[in-house]
Design goal:
Blueprint: E1 8-18, H1 42-59, E2 61-65, H2 74-82, H3 88-102, E3 110-119, E4 122-130, E5 133-143, E6 146-157, E7 166-176, E8 182-188, H4 197-203, E9 206-208, H5 212-230, H6 234-249, E10 254-255, H7 257-264, H8 267-279, E11 287-288, E12 300-304, E13 310-314, H9 315-321, E14 322-326, E15 332-336
Antiparallel strand pairs: 1-3, 2-8, 2-9, 3-4, 4-7, 5-6, 7-8, 10-11, 12-13, 14-15
Length: about 375
């Protein structure tokens, strides 16, 4: 299944108006369906393609049809279109009705775009919810022989440069499995990659292919392994590990390994880092971050020495209180600044040899 969104081509499209369900409205809103595809000029077609190539590249997540509990008939509509059992206009009307039925009263009104498309030469269906915006346009005019600007307000603008509220899904023919289920991509630009449940489940009838908890764990383990095994400079190793922990502890909902490498790693290390991630089946493209499976490993930094000595420090104090000096012979001096408030022995529970168990208890000091 190709994910080369640069090869997304829109052939024709149809729009349907999906109003907001206002409980207090004196007259119930009704779905307004189009009966024919719209005319797309080259400029409009180019704009649509460019917008949604970008949205799917930045926010697209792989999705698969939810087969355990069927929550929507949209996968059936998509399958029927991709297998040429039904045409665009007819299928789009059913899809518009599904969106109308799945939306809550809090969902704003918008236009549903359903487009016949191709992806890497494969028949595809693009489904997008657009929200209209208001805006002003200034037009240069001459009034009474004097130049001025005529300001006009437009209440039905679409896909403006600052519009952050639309959702998209793309399915192609090569995403149909042997069992007849559909696979594709979905994006929710409003939530920055994460998807509203009504869009993903109630409307699309899908789920994400990859669990964010497992993706985050795989990245954490692969990145940590690369730092431990491939970075020989202790000072650089500490810098990289700190960047990794800070990235995972941050409040950002997504993680982009390629962007992480570009921001935090030396240029000569970036390709090797990404190659290592790929070799460990960790993602190198953006994914939803969920640290639930690694949270307990993100609070402390542990430095290990050849002698068996370890230093454990809270991540938030490392930059200020820990300093590493490297020496020509490969050894390092670690300086920890601060006031010593406690000292204690460290006990590690291990299975004892029965024959020597009796030798483990230290004898009291003798006065002799």
């Amino acid at each position: 299944m190709s994910s080369e969104f640069a090869q997304l081509v829109v052939d024709e499209a149809i729009f349907h108006l999906v109003p907001q369900r206002r409980k207090s409205a004196p007259v119930p809103a009704e779905l307004q369906l189009s009966e024919a595809v719209c005319q797309l000029t080259d400029d409009v077609r180019t704009k649509i393609q460019a917008n949604f190539r970008k949205v799917l590249t930045s926010y697209g997540r792989e999705v698969v049809e939810e087969t355990d509990v069927k929550k929507s008939t949209l996968p059936d509509c998509v399958h029927e279109y991709l297998t040429k059992e039904r045409e665009l206009v007819e299928v789009s009307e059913d899809i518009a009705q599904l969106l109308w039925d799945s939306q809550k009263a809090s969902s704003p009104a918008g236009l549903l775009l359903v487009a016949a498309a191709s992806l890497a030469g494969q028949r595809a269906l693009l489904i997008v919810k657009l929200e209209q915006e208001g805006g002003l346009r200034a037009q240069d005019v001459v009034v009474d022989g004097r130049r001025t600007f005529d300001m006009r307000y437009f209440a039905d603008l679409l896909m403006t440069e600052h519009n952050k509220v639309y959702k998209a899904a793309l399915f192609s023919a090569d995403g149909i499995t042997e069992e007849g289920h559909i696979e594709g991509w979905a994006a929710d630009k409003q939530l920055g990659g994460r998807m509203a449940q009504f869009w993903l489940q109630a409307f699309l009838g899908c789920r994400q292919r990859n669990d964010p908890k497992l993706l985050t764990q795989a990245f954490h383990e692969a990145a940590g392994e690369w730092i431990d095994q491939r970075v020989s400079d202790p000072e650089k190793s500490l810098r990289y590990l700190m960047a990794l922990l800070v990235e995972l502890r941050s409040n950002t909902p997504t993680l982009d390994p390629t962007a992480f490498a570009r921001r935090h790693l030396d240029l000569r290390d970036q390709d090797d880092f990404l190659t290592h991630l790929a070799s460990k089946n960790a993602r190198t493209t953006v994914f939803d971050k969920d640290v639930a499976r690694v949270a307990t490993r993100l609070n402390d930094l542990k430095l290990g020495f050849e002698s068996g000595i370890f230093i454990v420090a809270p991540v938030k104090r490392v930059d200020e209180d820990v300093e590493i000096d490297d020496h020509p012979d490969g050894t390092s001096t670690v300086t920890v600044k601060g006031k010593i408030t406690s000292t204690r022995s460290h006990y590690s529970a291990r299975k004892q040899d029965p024959a020597s168990a009796g030798d483990q208890t230290p004898e009291p000091d003798s006065d002799a």
